[in-house]
Design goal:
The chain is 36% helix and 12% strand. The protein is an alpha/beta fold and 1009 residues long. The chain has four domains: 9-211, no CATH class; 221-308 and 328-555, 3-Layer(aba) Sandwich (Rossmann fold), CATH 3.40.50.970; 584-755 and 803-847, Rossmann fold; 869-1000, Rossmann fold. Helix 11 (358-371) crosses helix 22 and helix 21 (626-639) packs parallel to helix 27 (807-818). It starts with 8 loop residues before the first helix and ends in a 9-residue tail after the last helix. Its cofactor is Mg(2+); thiamine diphosphate.
């Protein structure tokens, strides 16, 4: 009888620790702790033994299990069948290992698994040799019951039927051979973390790559290519340091191997089918990546160092924006690869918010996949380059990672490269993270992590190539952690010894990666000193030539408008205003499509009633509500061939149960999206509506990146409540409000931010309208050209901020985003109670393009920036003694109160577009009511809302007509407040009632609250 008894407590502890770290920790069924000598359950696979079977107070017996197997092999798990069949058979036919027991075999398995799990802790990863890591006990031979006397004993391995070198056709090896292979595979200059991955196929694939591939041995030609790329990386930094000694460039010194690693990675993914790569990175090494990887002309980079960009020759008045520092800029180029392929590279511009660009890269990559019909996601790839401190410390990293497998956000895997210089600005790792590695957050996504010594360029290249193969094979994320250092501190004029004296004492005497590699190649005899000198001379000559040419460099037309953006206008070019009405027949046809459900579909009874009501709206043309107006905008844009994408928390149903873009069958659970059936044989992704994860920063960034790829798409992000959007404040501040000015990149992204005071408290009332208006860049003291044929007001403003009050105006607003020759972000203070308000309705005729219908004026059917008083006032109304200007849903309360108190001498005008300010229409109303007192009414506190933005611009409009000064603008609204709203409903009702009544009282209004 062959059996095992875990008699040694040390062996039991080792077995317990090793098996607890396998990717299969849970048993097939729940089993209580068994008494002494109890048999192992037959259904438990060999690889899933856990603590309950290895308790120190009892022994694990296999005798009963073996007896059961001998009586009936099918009565035990297949892994035990293989175990006994192979072991017993081999013991009978191989006398050399007849003394090997099952106990020794299992201890050997635990030793192998220990290296697979924890070998990276023994790997030589820190090029400076400063990190003192504790080697796990389970890598010790003695812990597994082996001694030096066992090193030359032969052991049978084939029993385990495992991948890696254990699966080779060498079932018998000495313990010494096994240990050497394990050390070679797991404890060299690359440390592999992959045993946390639950998928056995993925683990086996990696195990084969790690254990069966012999030590990296590149041919002479290949090594010369790697050397050439490392020399370029090193010489580029040296050249900049020589020419611009006092300039900040956040160089790559200490991490120069990143460049050959990236280039070899790109070569490999190109061979595996990738045609386009979107790159996101912070400033460390960005210029080197731009010049040596993306192939931005070196003369252009040098020109920017020597005084910045110049206007394009012959293009007087070219819009150049504010610009940005060199190491934030992006670009895009096509470049050849070593394998003869061509690949398109684009580096996304990024501010100093290091990881903020991450979700943009994923969104842009996803959009590329949509527009190139890359359904298997193998042609377009996103690559993110991180710093160690920011990868561990910034929450947007996880927000981005957790999008990786979501159906409407996945890009088929992102390759993450961490430039791990072991210091975050001046913070040591022990103060910058709580985990062993900065990359541990990626384990939550089952991403393999390859830690690599940044001084070993061939190890970096190997890790990068393996990451490329993983991504193209499994279409999921992977991390390459290049452990390196910063030779010159945070930037080139920093003094790092202030905070890291020990580290920088070592760095001062530490050889460069290039020196190390050159010495290695010289020792191998594959490359001579003459070869090295030849490459260095070539690189130096080209750098100097490019420097000379940079003095006369004149940039070509900016590449901010890529292929899809050809023909779009810059802020300096006049774009004509287009009508947005739609043919009535098309409105009827798409209206029927979006209000019809399949015959056998069984929706919730409340939803069924909603769709019946919607169908009636389309049939009669009466009472079109907000949701139908929005759906008509989407549907008509789809008919015209535009892509529409709506994303955010709960957007499918709508936070307020108003949209129902996706309907669920109450019996089968099947879903139906009416907007997927507007066009014959419609592409299933032409309209995309997706409930997002509970993220603002990450998801909004994703949609922003998506919107930047192609202008012929309406991309919308909706906040669950507008109040929650401030979780994405970095996106508003650094990208959306200023991206075009800094980087000359347009976007037509739409933000829907539910806003309005309904008594729901401080966190469900305000989308912080004042913040968006404060970031608007239009001059409050200058009235721009307002003639429709010459007007560039919107083009010259950084974005648009609106608070719309009718479904028809919302329809035209959304269509306006697509039907013009430029793109601007659109911030919509979206309604809540207006979604079902009895008066917030439109007639279908307001959506069409028929002359004479309500939505048609002298210019055509289009978005109304200001809606005049609903009463049929003439061009001159001297009897009106108060003009109340407002925005949003407070209008309906004001109008209701006006009817109630019968104030026919009060006019109420709705400012639908707050930014840019509609000077022409405001002045039209001021002229219409020459004797009226001017009132601005809002729901928000005085220090919030639109008042601080509106008042100086309104004053400018009034001053031009001789209508008074700032003191003549009367404020009606809540008083200044720290919180956006009261949390007491009774107080809210009182405040709302008082401000509405005050706006309409008969006595003159003063601004004393």
């Amino acid at each position: 009888m062959v059996w095992i008894r875990a008699a040694s407590s040390v062996a039991r502890s080792a077995l317990r620790r090793a098996l607890a770290q396998t990717p299969h920790r849970r048993l097939l069924h729940s089993t209580p702790l068994r008494p002494k000598a109890a048999p192992v359950p037959r259904a438990v696979p060999l690889s899933r033994l856990t603590d309950s079977f290895l308790d120190g107070t009892s022994s694990v017996y296999l005798e009963e299990l073996q007896r059961a197997w001998e009586a009936d092999p099918s009565s035990v798990d297949e892994s035990w069948d293989n175990f006994f069949r192979n072991f017993v058979g081999q013991a009978a036919t191989s006398p050399g290992i007849s003394g090997q027991t099952i106990q020794e075999s299992m201890r050997l398995l635990l030793l192998v698994r220990a290296y697979q799990v924890n070998g990276h802790m023994k790997a030589k990863l820190d090029p400076l040799g400063l990190e003192k890591r504790v080697i796990p006990d389970d890598l010790d031979l003695g812990l597994h019951g082996f001694t030096e006397a066992d090193l030359d004993r032969e052991f049978f391995l084939g029993v385990w039927r495992m991948s890696g070198f254990l699966s080779e056709n060498r079932p018998v090896q000495t313990l010494r051979e096994i240990l050497n292979r394990l050390e070679q595979a797991y404890c060299g200059n690359i440390g592999y973390e992959y045993m946390h991955i639950a998928d056995r196929e993925k683990c086996n694939w990696l195990r084969d790559k790690i254990e069966t591939v012999k030590p990296t041995s590149y041919s002479q030609d290949r090594r010369e290519v790697i050397l050439d790329r490392l020399i370029w990386s090193t010489q580029f930094e040296n050249f900049l340091a020589t020419k611009w000694t006092a300039a900040k460039r956040f160089g790559l010194e200490g991490a120069e191997t990143l460049i050959p690693g990236m280039k070899e990675m790109f070569d490999r993914v190109a061979m595996l089918g990738v045609e386009s790569i979107v790159i996101g990175m912070s400033h460390r090494g960005r210029l080197n990546v731009l010049g040596n990887v993306v192939r931005k002309p070196l003369r252009q980079i040098f020109s920017e160092f020597s005084g910045g960009t110049k206007p394009v020759d012959g293009e007087v008045g070219l819009y150049t924006g504010t610009g940005d520092v060199k190491y934030h800029l992006g670009t895009s180029y096509d470049r050849p690869t070593r394998g003869g392929y061509r690949i398109h590279l684009s580096l996304v511009a990024n501010p100093s918010h290091l990881e903020a660009v991450d979700p943009l890269v994923l969104g842009k990559t996803r959009a590329k996949q949509f527009y190139s019909n890359d359904t298997d996601r193998t042609k377009n790839l996103g690559i993110l380059i991180h710093g160690d401190g920011s990868f561990a410390g910034q929450g947007v990293v996880y927000e981005t990672l957790h999008l990786s497998a979501l159906p409407n956000y996945t890009t088929g895997g992102t390759i993450h490269i961490v430039v791990n210089n072991q210091v975050a600005f001046t913070t040591d790792p022990m103060s910058g993270r709580s985990s062993q590695y900065c990359t541990d957050v990626a384990k939550a996504l089952d991403a393999p992590i390859f830690h690599v010594n940044g001084d070993d360029v061939e190890a970096v290249v190997h890790a990068c190539e393996l990451a490329a193969e993983w991504r193209q094979t499994f279409h999921s994320d992977v991390v390459v952690d290049i452990i390196c250092y910063r030779r010159f501190g945070h930037n080139e004029i920093d003094e790092p010894s202030f905070t890291q004296p020990k580290m920088y004492k070592v760095i001062r005497n530490h050889p460069r990666a290039l020196d190390i590699y050159q010495e290695k190649l010289l020792e191998s005899g594959q490359i001579s000193k003459a070869d090295i000198e030849r490459i260095n001379k070539k690189v130096d000559t080209i750098l100097n030539e490019e420097f000379i040419n940079s003095k006369d460099y004149v940039p070509r037309r900016r590449d901010w408008l890529a292929a899809y953006w050809a023909g779009f206008k810059s802020p300096e070019q006049i774009s004509r205003v287009r009508n947005t009405g739609v043919n009535p027949e098309i409105l009827k046809r798409v209206g029927q499509a979006i209000t019809t459900l399949p015959e056998n579909f069984k929706p919730h009874r409340a939803v069924k009633k909603i769709f019946e009501q919607r169908a009636q709206m389309i049939e009669t043309g009466e009472g079109i509500d907000w949701a139908v107006g929005e759906a008509l905008a989407f549907a008509t844009l789809l008919v015209e061939g535009n892509h529409v994408r709506l994303s955010g928390q709960d957007v499918e149903r709508g936070t307020f149960s108003h949209r129902h873009a996706v309907v669920h069958d109450q019996e089968t659970g099947e879903i139906y999206c009416p907007l997927d059936h507007v066009v014959m044989n419609q592409n299933e992704e032409l309209f995309t509506v997706s409930n997002s994860s509970l993220s603002e920063f990450g998801v909004l960034g994703f949609e922003l990146g998506y919107s930047m790829e192609n202008p012929n798409s309406l991309v919308i992000w909706e906040a669950q409540f507008g109040d929650f959007s401030n979780g994405a404040q970095v996106m508003f501040d650094q990208f959306l409000s200023s991206g075009e000015s800094k980087w000359l990149r347009q976007t037509g992204l739409v933000l829907l931010l539910p806003h309005g005071y309904d008594g729901q408290g401080p966190e469900h009332s305000s989308a912080r309208l004042e913040r968006f208006l404060q970031m608007s860049d239009d001059n409050p003291y200058v009235i721009p050209e307002m003639d429709p044929t010459l007007r560039k007001q919107i083009q010259e403003c950084n974005w648009q901020v609106v608070n719309v009050t009718t479904p028809a105006n919302y329809f035209h607003l959304l269509r306006r985003q697509i039907h013009r020759e430029f793109r601007k972000p659109l911030v919509v203070m979206a309604p809540k109670n207006l979604l079902r308000h009895k008066d917030c309705k439109s007639h279908l005729s307001e959506f069409d393009d028929v002359v004479g219908h309500p939505g048609f004026d002298k210019q055509g059917t289009r978005f109304k920036r200001l809606i005049k008083d609903q009463n049929d006032h003439s061009d001159m109304e001297e009897g009106i003694n108060r003009l109340v200007l407002c925005s949003g849903k407070v209008y309906y309360e004001l109008n209701e109160e006006r009817k109630k108190v019968d104030r026919k001498d009060v006019a109420i005008c709705r400012v639908e577009q707050l930014c840019p300010f509609p000077y022409d229409l405001i002045q039209r109303e001021l002229k219409r009511y020459p004797n009226a007192e001017i009132v601005w009414c809002q729901e928000e506190p005085m220090n919030m809302g639109a008042y601080s933005y509106i008042s100086p611009r309104l004053c400018t409009a009034m001053g031009a007509l001789g209508r008074g000064t700032m003191e003549d603008i009367k404020y009606v609204g809540r008083g200044p407040s720290a919180a956006t709203a009261t949390g007491f409903y009774s107080v809210h009702v009182q405040e709302q009632t008082e401000l509405v009544q005050k706006a309409l009282q008969r006595e003159p209004i003063n601004n004393l609250l």
